[in-house]
Amino acid sequence: MHTERAGQGWPRFITLGDQVGLSRLSGHSFYEAAWAGGWHLRRFEMSGTTRQGLPFEHIELAHRLAEVLAAEAGLSPEPAPAEAVEAAYLRRLKATGALLGPPEPGLVLPPVIQGQAVAAYRVNEIGVTMLGGEANEVAYVSTAQSDAAILLQRDERRAVLAAVPVVRGRVRPGSPLMTTPLAEADWSQPGWRRAVCAWGAWLAGAVK
Length: 208
Description:
Blueprint: E1 2-4, E2 13-16, E3 20-24, E4 30-35, E5 40-45, H1 58-72, H2 82-92, E6 99-101, E7 116-123, E8 126-132, E9 137-143, E10 148-155, E11 160-167, E12 170-171, E13 178-181, H3 190-207
Antiparallel strand pairs: 1-2, 2-3, 3-4, 4-5, 6-7, 7-8, 8-9, 9-10, 10-11, 11-12, 11-13
Helix pairs in contact: 2-3
């Protein structure tokens, strides 16, 4: 594999042998993949990458590239189980595990949060409060060292779960920090509730 960095923290161009070329386009999160001598060309976006100040890893870029090539070949990779997704985000947080239990005593949620605390998921100093009673709100993520937080909420129109910044008790307008398809995060399943909480905890750790 050959990379060209051009003074950037991320390679702007990657060549895998003589088969596949991957280029980062303007806008930082847009990539272009070409193979078979340039006869095949596909573009894709890494949602919420440097444009939102969020880090991502080589494995994520490799995964998106694999998805592009697999779709061209008519292949459909098996989805990762919830346990593997949770474990991956805990590794990024350098955490050996997470604690799941009742809501923390004395917890006071900002008035902007309409849901009620039903459970707590804690990773290191990051607390994720699972919410119930409000159809669209899923969880509220906060850290003891910051007055900024994240609200995880469903966006049924776009069919995504969105991570929305909350600053000084108010939802910040504009684009969400990151989204994930609702179809890939079934909140009704306990394993996926833990996985979504781990994703929210990683986001809070990445933007703090």
